[in-house]
Every structure is written in C-alpha cells, then in structure tokens.
Amino acid sequence: MSKKKTYEAEDFSHHVTSMGTYFAIFAALMVLTALTVWVAFQDFGSLNVPIAFAIATVKATVVVLFFMHVIHSPKMTAAILVGSIVFLGILFLLTFSDYLSRFWPMA
Predict the structure, then answer these.
(1) pTM reported for the whole predicted model
(2) 50 and 25 inside one domain
C-alpha cells in the first residue's frame, strides 16, 4: 500500500503583509477612485466606456492580488484565476457574437 501524504502546518507558508503596504494599496485605490470620478465628468466620446473599464480592471486587479492574497498564493491558484478569466472572456465573446449576428428588422 502507498502511504498518503499528510500536510503539516509547516508545509503551507504564512505571509504577513505590512501595514505600509496596505496603506499604499489604500492610497492607490483612492487615487484610482478619484480618477474614475474625474473621467465620468469628461467627454471622451466613444472612449468613455473603455476608459472606465480599464480603471475598474486595474482596481479589481489590485484588490484580487493583495486583499485576496493571490500574489502570495501557490502557482496553481494563479493558474485557476487566469483560466477563469479566459473562460469568462470566451463566454462574453460567444454571447456578444450571437447577439451581434442577429437580424434586427427596422421598426
């Protein structure tokens, strides 16, 4: 019979993030939030939505990496995260391609 591997507490490293890092992340999120508000009152034409999505993506990335501790997680966690984002993109691509390819009669 093969022996099952047991995981002891020392197998998983514990990372402690400093308060300075959290304050820097807080400051970055506040700056990005102020930038979001500023962009909302500007007229960039058809670029309004892509700019807003870009800022929201940066903010979400910071939150996922630091507050969810993905930056210090094993590589498998990062692979699952990237795979999930790829499959979400495929879902959006298929949904929008179906929506945009429909015939819409003129009213």
Answers:
(1) 0.68
(2) yes
- Asked whether 52 and 38 are in contact (CB, 8 A), the reply is no
User: Do 87 and 46 have their domain in common?
Assistant: no
Please report whether residue 106 resides in a domain: no
Q: Do 29 and 59 contact (CB within 8 A), yes or no?
A: yes
Residue 63, domain extent: 17-68
Rounded to 5 degrees, what are φ and ψ at 103?
-85, 125
> In this predicted model, what pLDDT tens digit does every residue of 57-100 receive, in sequence order?
999 999 998 988 888 888 898 899 899 999 999 999 999 898 88
The vertex-105 CA angle with 45 and 99, nearest 5°, equals 60
Secondary element (H or E) of residue 87: helix 75-100
The C-alpha atoms of residue 67 and residue 51 are separated, in whole angstroms, by 24
> 7 lies in a domain?
no
